[in-house]
Amino acid sequence: MKDYLKHHEWEIIEEGFDPHLNKISESVFSIGNGRMGQRANFEEEYSGDTLKGSYVAGVYYPDKTRVGWWKNGYPEYFAKVLNAPSWIGIHISVDGHKLDLAKCKVEDFKRVLDMRTGLLTRSFAATLSDGKKLRVLSKRFCSMANGEVGAIRYAFTPLNFSGKITLSLYVDADVVNKDSNYDEKFWEEVSKEASPGRALVVAQTKKTFFHVATAMKFQITTHGKIVTVDRINIEQREKFAGNVFQIDVEEGKETIIYKYAAVLSSENHPKEKIAAQANHVLDDAFAKGFDKLFDEHAKVWEHKWEECDITIEGDIAAQQGIRFNIFQLTQTYTGEDERLNIGPKGFTGEKYGGSTYWDTEAYCLPFYLGTSEQKVSRNLLVYRHKHLARAIENAQKLGFKDGAALYPMVTMNGEECHNEWEITFEEIHRNGAIAFAIFDYIRYTGDEDYLADHGLEVLIGISRFWAQRVNWSADKNKYVMLGVTGPNEYENNVNNNWYTNYIATWTLKYTQEAISLVKKKHGKRFEVIADVVRLKEKEETSKWADIVEKMYFPHDPKRDVYLQQDNFLDKELLRVSDLKQEDRPLNQKWSWDRILRSCFIKQADVLQGIYLFEDDFSIETIRKNFDFYEPMTVHESSLSPCVHVILASKLGYKAKAYELYLRTARLDLDDYNNDTEDGCHITSMAGTWMSVVKGFGGMKVKEGKLHFNPFMPDQWKSYSFRIEFRNRVIKVKVSNEGVTTKLESGEPLEIVLKDEAVMLS
Ligand code: BGC
Question: Which of 427, 489, 491, 677 is labelled catalytic?
Answer without folding.
Answer: 489
